[in-house]
Design a protein that fits this description.
This protein is an alpha+beta fold. The chain has a domain of 81 residues. It contains 2 helices and 6 strands, in the order E-H-E-E-E-E-H-E. It is globular and about 50 Å long. The model has no long low-confidence stretch (mean pLDDT 93).
């Protein structure tokens, strides 16, 4: 049976990667994919956006069961992470959080962990 797990994380971090750290972020993404027992289909792909007010890194990977996307803003202190993990297979929330904390030193964490097969609000059923 398919699962529909969707994790949204907003984290402030002390160890915020910068433009020269793209390789580090790619390695982190690959390690996360392995840690949560997913299969990589494509990527990860990474870019540095050098636009004032929106400066930072975007990294995304297609996994067999959906996707993982990370946005990092490095202009503020502490740095800001927004992470989106969606999978049709179960994964452990604590594995994702510990991976973030071990590599980037979280100072503040907010998250929603949705079961999109059950948590959605029904407006109309045909």
């Amino acid at each position: 049976m398919l699962k529909h797990k969707h994790l949204l994380i907003r984290a402030e971090v002390n160890n915020c990667p910068m433009q020269d750290d793209l390789g580090y972020v790619l390695a982190w993404m690959n390690n996360l994919i392995n840690k949560i027992n997913m299969k990589l289909l494509q990527g990860p792909n990474i870019s540095y956006i050098n636009q004032k007010g929106n400066r930072g890194i975007t990294c995304m990977a297609l996994i067999e069961t959906s996707h993982i996307v990370l946005h990092i803003w490095d202009e503020q202190d502490p740095g800001l992470f927004q992470l989106d993990v969606y999978s049709c297979k179960d994964f452990n929330l604590q594995d994702v959080i510990s991976s973030l904390n071990d590599s980037f030193n979280i100072t503040k964490l907010q998250y929603k962990f949705l079961d999109r097969s059950n948590d959605l609000i029904m407006i109309k059923e045909k």
